[in-house]
Structure formats: C-alpha cells, structure tokens
Structure to design on (214 residues):
C-alpha cells in the first residue's frame, strides 16, 4: 500500500518541468509542431474556400435566391406601410395653416416651429414621389420645391425672425402662389390653396400672452 505522502512526492517529481526547463530543444520542437498544425488548419480552410466542391457551390446560390425572394416580399410589405404623397401634403397643409395664425397673432416662436415643420414635410412629400409623370412629360418636383424653398419659404422665415407682420402677410400669400404653381405643374389645378379660415391645431393656444398652463 502506498502512503499518501509518497503519491504527493511522485507527482512533484514528474519529469514534465525538465522537458521545458532543461531541454529547450523540446520546447522549440513543440512550438514548431503547434505552428505547423495551425498552418495546416489555415491551409485546409483556405483550400475549402478556394475550391468548393459541387455541393458547396450550389448551396449558397439557393440561399441567395431564397434571401432575395424574402427581401422582395419584405419590401412589398414595407411599401404598403409607407405613407403616400397625398398624406405628406396633408401634413404640409396642416402645418402651413398654423403658420398663418401664429404669424397673425405675432407668436413668432410658434410661427417658426410650424414653418420648419412645413419645410421638412414638403421635403418628405417630394422624397416619396420626386418626379411625377404628366401629359406634358416628367415633372421634377425636387427642382420646383428647391425654387420655392429658396425664395418664398426662406423669405417667410426672414419675416418671422424679423417679427415683421406686414412682410409676413405678403410673403405668406406669395408662398401660397408657389404652392399652387407646383400643384398646377403636377396636373392638379383643383388643389387651389387659400388663406386658412381657422388654425388646424385646435389644442394649441396661439396667443403668445397666454398664461395657462404655467
Ligand atoms: C414640389 C411640388 C409641390 C409643392 C411645392 C407643394 N405641393 Fe402640395 N401637393 C403636391 C402634389 C403633387 C400633390 C398631390 C399629391 C397626391 O395626390 O399624390 C399635393 C397635394 C396637396 C394637398 C392635398 C392633400 C390631400 O390629400 O388633401 C395640400 C393640402 C397641399 N398639397 C398643400 C400644399 C401647400 C400648403 C404647399 C405650400 C406651402 C404645397 N402644397 C406645396 C405638390 C406640391
């Protein structure tokens, strides 16, 4: 029967440390072995990529077709969820009507807010359909919007920043003419805008002196 202490001593004196410490040659050969195994694995993998077998060649092709079909179906589904141009324009009408009342009430920060919304929703509307097909040919809505934005809408912004209600009133009307020019170019002359009779946002107080809610 072997005593416990003997086992311990036996373990302690195993020649493993000698292999590494006293004979560096063994260390080098072990390292070389590891390196060549690693190189072998890399070579094998590279080869399987470089020269795929017939099964490997056709499998990704089937996958790609399947993925494209799935993406197409997903795009169709998303298209059904994207708002149409008329919806975006309805928002433009909503924001731009509020611009008028905010300006008339001299609530300039509110007028600025609704003008910014008008401009960004116009850009959105034109992103939805950038070019419209008409009897007269293709109408580039981007070009028309750019012209309206750089002239009328930026003038309106200046009037708001200058808090000039006279200029604001004039430029607002001119802007409506710009809106209508695009509606006509889009073969929609029946979309004739007017000075709105009431603000669209009923829940927003346009009075800049309002004190409630605090
Ligand atoms: C770059 C062209 C363009 C400009 C600029 C433009 N519109 Fe339009 N608007 C359209 C087109 C196109 C439609 C019809 C959209 C449709 O039916 O697909 C439209 C439709 C509308 C509608 C009807 C939406 C509905 O379904 O009830 C309103 C309201 C409207 N626009 C307001 C305005 C106002 C206000 C401005 C100016 C601040 C303006 N638009 C500027 C192109 C334009």
């Amino acid at each position: 029967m072997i005593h416990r202490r003997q086992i311990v001593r036996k373990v302690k004196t195993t020649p493993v440390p000698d292999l590494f410490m006293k004979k560096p040659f063994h260390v080098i050969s072990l390292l070389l072995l590891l390196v060549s195994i690693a190189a072998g694995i890399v070579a094998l993998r590279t080869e399987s990529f470089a020269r795929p077998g017939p099964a490997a060649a056709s499998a990704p092709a089937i996958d790609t077709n399947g993925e494209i079909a799935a993406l197409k179906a997903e795009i169709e589904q998303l298209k059904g969820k994207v708002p149409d141009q008329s919806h975006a324009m309805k928002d433009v009408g909503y924001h731009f009507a509020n611009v008028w009342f905010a300006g008339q009430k001299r609530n300039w920060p509110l007028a600025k807010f609704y003008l910014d919304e008008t401009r960004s929703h116009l850009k959105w509307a034109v992103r939805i359909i950038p070019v419209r097909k008409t009897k007269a040919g293709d109408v580039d809505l981007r070009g028309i919007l750019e012209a309206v934005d750089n002239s009328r809408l930026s003038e309106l912004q200046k009037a708001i920043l200058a808090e000039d209600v006279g200029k604001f009133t004039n430029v607002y009307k001119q802007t409506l003419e710009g809106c209508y020019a695009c509606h006509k170019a889009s073969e929609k002359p029946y979309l004739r805008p007017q000075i709105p009779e009431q603000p669209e946002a009923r829940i927003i107080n346009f009075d800049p002196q309002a004190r409630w809610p605090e």
